[in-house]
Amino acid sequence: MKRAAAKLPKTSALPSEAAIALSRIQAAAVAAMAAILIWAYWPTMINLVTAWWNVDDYSHGFLVIPLAVIFLYWRAASRPSFDGQFHAAGLGMIAAAAALRWIGANVFIEAFDGWSLILYVVGIVWLVGGWPVVRWAMPALGFLFFMVPLPYRMETALSLPLQKIAARGSCWLLQSLGQPALQEGTTLVIRDIHLEISRACSGLRMFTGVIALAYVFAVLSKRPWWDKVVILVGAIPAAIVANIIRITATALLYRVFAGEAIRQSIHDFAGWFTIFVAAILLGILSQYLKRLIVESQVVGNRELLSSSVS
Asked: Mind spelling out the 3-state secondary structure of 48-105?
């Protein structure tokens, strides 16, 4: 006697016509909003590129977008799937971007314009991907804030204290090395050499660059979250110490080489050397944290007894 075969619902690996239509609508919506972004924010993009090209403190802006793309590629395996729906929260984020841009135009803060561009991009991702996709892309989206120059007031508020710390710290280090160094405000006097710790030498560029470096490490490394937080916080003193070492090394080399051209070359090379020193300091901090807390395996009583008997 033959048993009646159970009728199973037919499944198809192909997407339904409704899903295909919705995905096409989403693609068209993303293309339209991207075109609006380019049209509306074209002057903002020009100002950003101009700042990257002309201001040394923000020359790292050219690397921000490529590194953000690398972050997405690095995390591609964990990307959640798109649910094929529109999410109203994305429109709310786009409205917040428009409001921030309006505020920036009325209070004359250009940084608000650049930040609103980033919020607009977050809104597009949220609109078509939902919160899971935004959360997955957050390391790359958050890194985009490094490409926007700081507001002038914030930049001034950071530069002046950093100038004083750099002058005081490098003077102390030079005196510890036996050099007849004196500090006059933000100027170091070593015999006949007057080394001015100008605003460009305050360490703001190293400050932002080292924090960006620590951010890259936190995103790409597979370490506990608290470990990454400590690395990000530790980037601040690492940048300050590296800048003090840079100024001290520059002063010592100025005593050896008197030519104006070679001194300018020393000054320019010292900026790259500082990033290298800061990276070494962050590496030392990372190794210290790695040895500070050792991961252990929790073993139950049964496994402990079985291993002792064997």
From this structure: HHHHHHHCHHHCCHHHHHHHHHHHHHHCHHHCCCCCCCCCHHHHHHHHHHHHHHHHHH
Specify the pLDDT at position 48.
93
Q: Give the three-state DSSP class for 194.
A: strand
Q: Which two tokens stand for residue 293?
A: 């807390």
How many whole angstroms separate alpha carbon 255 and alpha carbon 268?
Answer: 17
Q: What is the DSSP letter of 144?
A: G
**pLDDT tens digits for range 198-239:** 655 555 666 777 888 888 888 887 778 888 888 888 888 888
The first and second tokens of residue 28, run together, are 């068209």
Compute the distance between CA of residue 52 and CA of residue 56 in angstroms, rounded to an integer.
7
Comparing CA positions, the residue from 185, 180, 205, 204 lying closest to residue 196 is 185
Helix residue ranges per DSSP H, the chain: 17-54, 61-74, 88-107, 110-143, 152-176, 204-220, 225-256, 260-292, 301-309
pLDDT at 256: 76
